[in-house]
Specification:
This protein is mostly beta strands. 7% of the residues lie in helices and 42% in strands. The longest helix is centred in the first third of the chain and has 8 residues, at 4-11. The N and C termini lie far apart (44 Å). The mean pLDDT is 97. It binds 6-O-phosphono-beta-D-tagatofuranose (TA6).
């Protein structure tokens, strides 16, 4: 892994990107543009915050999150790859795969015409990943910061056999109050509920929250709109290359059972995850790629 000095020398953009040691001493890229700023950790390729100019952080982060090698960060946008959720064949393997606890490298930093900045991080299959998943891959994760936030995860199969995966951009959003938000865009979509343990279909009604909610909506390419009257804003999450959307809030008792999640924090977060999960596995032929993209934009209400 490159040192801070090497990173600064190689990717200096005259101040738009500054590398430092962030929480837990982990290497962090601080990206600043006229329209907003982000913090992107090389640990896990983890986007920890996105603060549009004159607004509060759009992403939620637990005040009890770990920032340690080998442990996932609780909040921001964890990268779930090469499986979403538990690994059915290897129960001891880490939930949501190994990408979110691997050390990524910086491959490219580019200034955009509109003043935005994009950073591409790289993770290649290696001795560690092969122990968990026998496949040869290159992951390129490009975060583009500006008035909107774009996240694109490209998976390239550099092996000689097809690879099959599930994945998610597991986005945690900061909200005023889980009792007072709503999500549209998934009306009529089939979902699997981890809480009820059943497969059902979303009514043609806005999603509101009245208890623990953990749903994988399948076969949907729709955008979602999160309406937060308390924050006076709506977030629109559009996507490409994703056939699943996951909606999650742990509610009170599950939050209390998580050591990296303060007991009262469930009120101020919701996950709307851009995914390919459960029925929506992705198979990539040798030499080919798959891209999953999420774009987040904000409107005042
Ligand atoms: O995306 C929802 C989910 O699969 C939930 O079941 C919950 O486990 C959440 O992910 C967080 O998973 P983690 O391994 O980060 O605690």
């Amino acid at each position: 892994m490159k040192s801070i000095e090497e990173l600064m020398e190689k990717f200096d953009l005259a101040g738009e990107i500054v590398f430092d040691h962030g929480e837990g001493g982990l290497v962090r890229a601080n990206i600043t543009t006229p329209d907003g700023s982000t913090e992107l950790y090389l640990h896990g390729g983890h986007l920890a915050s996105w603060t549009p100019t004159d607004k509060s952080d759009i992403l939620w982060m637990s005040r009890k999150s770990c920032f340690e090698q080998g442990k996932p960060i609780r909040g921001g946008v964890p990268l779930c790859f090469p499986w979403f959720g538990p690994n059915e064949e290897k129960p001891d393997a880490p939930a949501h795969g190994f990408a979110r606890t691997s050390i990524w490298d910086v491959e490219l930093v580019q200034r955009q015409d509109d003043g935005g900045v994009s950073v591409t991080l790289l993770l290649k299959s290696n001795e560690q990943t092969r122990k968990l998943w026998n496949a040869e891959f290159e992951l390129r994760y490009t975060v583009t910061v500006g008035a909107v936030l774009t996240m694109m995860l490209e998976t390239r199969n550099v092996g000689v056999t097809p690879l099959t995966m599930t994945q998610a951009l597991h986005s945690y959003f900061a909200i005023s109050d889980i009792h007072n938000i709503s999500i549209t865009g998934l009306e009529g979509v089939e979902y699997i509920s981890k809480v009820e343990g059943k497969r059902t279909r979303q009514a043609d009604a806005t999603i509101i929250f009245e208890g623990e909610t953990d749903r994988v909506y399948i076969n949907t390419t729709s955008a979602c709109v999160l309406k937060d009257p308390g924050m006076g804003r709506t977030l629109t999450i559009t996507k490409k290359g994703s056939n699943s959307t996951v909606i999650w809030n742990p509610w009170e008792s599950k939050a209390q059972r998580m050591t990296d999640f303060a007991d009262d924090e469930w009120i101020n977060m919701v996950c709307i995850e851009t995914a390919n999960a459960l029925d929506n596995t992705i198979t990539i032929q040798p030499g080919k790629t798959h891209e999953i993209t999420a774009q987040i934009s904000i409107d005042n209400i």
